[in-house]
């Protein structure tokens, strides 16, 4: 298998726009996933009876194959970017919900009690004590969701989107390996760089985890 | 002043944690709640700042019914110290201490300045302020806990087994510091412990609880040790309560005489007349632990038993020898103290 370097040189503009489009789909999905999972996680954490239902329901969503989700969404949102994003959001939501609930659970009862006893009201306790302390576990979820979304975007090629995934279909159809290899490398690169940035972000956001006695 | 009036607490599972409690905790004094686990002492403490709501009865702090106040605002006006500090692991020591001032709407600079001031009050170095709680020892964390409770200068301080998780040496240090602080600050303190020795050391009044949330006796430490209300209290105070009583009396009133300069044992002093050790005629040496007027009769008795002559060395604030006291004099005073108090057998 040889790489046709001139093809790459001729298509840098296409590759750039595909990469950006790929990244945009994945990141939008993770952000939406975060926005939706946060309140759901708080509910699941605080209202015990709803916890099993919410986590169970999200697990069921996770078992639907990704292609099936896109197909199921076609009557609703058609062959659009919206379909891609909704599908990916569903998956990241599942991961983020579970991690955020676990993160909130991991906050020591003693610390929450102390916050209450100092006269901190519940919302402020959530924002300034519980969420910061849950952050490492939530960030673990964000990292998984991000890498997963970046790899899943390609599946949306079947509905005419798919970012870098389009390179795979292009290469397979023409029996021309270069786009496939380039697509794989760029996807991997995106995932690795995104993950590294998230690790850096977590480092910045959790200064108390840095200096060990 | 904190007043409990016919307070009852039943938990939803049916257990009675506090049974018909009426109790007054005097202003500017340390009231210690003691008893074995499950006796309702912690529940009692937690009802003061509404961490637990009473089932019936009223609790007043400074004359105001606590249940008629906004819970969060009430809690900001009452200092709270819990075991192992309960510090916020994600905030620096300084920001931990500044918690309540910030909740009260102070600006960050003023709150931090106040926190830095308190760091010194509780005996921590200024550079500890920038650290995170996990970088401190257990004893240091506990000090931060006390500083945090004092930050907004509340008149009332609730302390729930604050020194339970530190080793005995550090615990004694922290107790000393608390006594020193209390002399300056005069807070109304409610202190929960299951350690009767801690209660005797710290309490102006001690309330003994029995399982089921019954208050059995509330009295000053001397009174409690001298005349326990019933067998339960006597047993809780332990067989050595007569000796514990001596820990509350100081040496100040016990007479002293000149140190012997001849005999089998003589007391060796350094140039500043500070006692070094006992030396015998054939040059054997035994250690001496000099005592001051503020030391207890119990320490004196202990030292006289260890001393080869039965004499204890008395010193002034500079450690300079002022005289010696014999075991007999100490025992006579101990006996007199018991007689005065009418100690029950």
Descriptive overview:
- The complex is a heterodimer of chains A (213) and B (345).
- Chain A is mostly helical.
- Chain A has one domain: MetI-like (MetI-like fold).
- Helices cover 81% and strands 0% of the residues of chain A.
- In chain A, helix 5 crosses helix 7 (122-152).
- The mean pLDDT of chain A is 91.
- Chain B folds into two domains: 2-238, P-loop containing nucleotide triphosphate hydrolases (Rossmann fold); 251-341, CBS-domain (Roll), CATH 3.10.580.
- Chain B has 345 residues and is of the alpha/beta class.
- Chain B is globular, with a radius of gyration of 23 Å.
- The longest helix of chain B has 18 residues, at 168-185.
- In chain B, a hairpin with a 4-residue loop joins strand 12 and strand 13 (285-287).
- Chain A binds chain B through residues 108, 110-111, 113-121, 124, 129, 132-133, 206, 208, 211-213, and chain B through 49, 51, 72-77, 80, 82, 84, 86-92, 99-100, 103, 131-132, 134-136, 148.
In short:
The complex is a heterodimer of chains A (213) and B (345). Chain A has helices spanning 5-10, 12-46, 48-63, 66-77, 81-105, 109-117, 122-152, 165-174, 177-205. Chain A is mainly α and 213 residues long.
CATH architecture of chain A: Orthogonal Bundle
Cα Rg of chain A: 20 Å
Largest interface: A-B, 21 and 27 residues
Described by strand count, sense and barrel closure, the largest sheet of chain B is:
6 strands, mixed
Features:
heterodimer; A: 213 residues; mainly alpha; MetI-like fold; 9 helices; elongated; B: 345 residues; alpha/beta; Rossmann fold; CBS-domain; 2 domains; 6-stranded mixed beta sheet; globular
Secondary structure elements and their pairing?
The complex is a heterodimer of chains A (213) and B (345).
Chain A: H1 5-10, H2 12-46, H3 48-63, H4 66-77, H5 81-105, H6 109-117, H7 122-152, H8 165-174, H9 177-205
Helix pairs in contact in A: 2-3, 2-5, 2-7, 3-5, 4-5, 5-7, 6-7, 7-9, 8-9
Chain B: E1 2-10, E2 16-25, E3 30-34, H1 41-48, E4 56-61, E5 64-65, H2 71-76, E6 78-82, H3 93-97, H4 99-103, H5 108-121, H6 138-150, E7 156-160, H7 168-185, E8 188-193, H8 196-202, E9 205-210, E10 214-219, H9 221-226, H10 231-237, H11 241-246, E11 265-269, E12 275-280, E13 285-287, H12 297-306, E14 311-315, E15 321-326, H13 327-341
Parallel strand pairs in B: 3-8, 3-9, 6-7, 7-8
Antiparallel strand pairs in B: 1-2, 1-4, 4-5, 9-10, 11-12, 12-13, 14-15
Helix pairs in contact in B: 5-6, 12-13
